[in-house]
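Tip: read the tokens left to right.
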């Protein structure tokens, strides 16, 4: 597999104090990481780096009206 799919979804409710949930499965394997200058990293490390980069770039999805601006 050349790509690690990142699927996004929404739920109706989360417990108090929980703003988001990240679920993973079977992150065995290696990938190259841009945050590690292209060096090999475990898939779990790669995913953590990818989520951090998306968050820093403002690219993580928000739920309009709850975690982000409302849509006009």
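Filled-in amino acids:
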């Amino acid at each position: 597999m050349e790509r690690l799919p990142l699927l996004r979804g929404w739920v109706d409710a989360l417990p108090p104090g929980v703003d988001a949930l990240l679920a993973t499965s079977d992150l065995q394997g290696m990938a190259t990481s841009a945050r590690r200058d292209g060096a090999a990293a475990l898939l779990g490390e790669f995913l953590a780096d990818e989520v951090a980069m998306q968050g820093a770039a403002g690219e993580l999805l928000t739920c309009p009206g709850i975690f982000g601006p409302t849509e006009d």
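The first helix runs from residue 43 to 56. The two ends are 39 Å apart (CA to CA).
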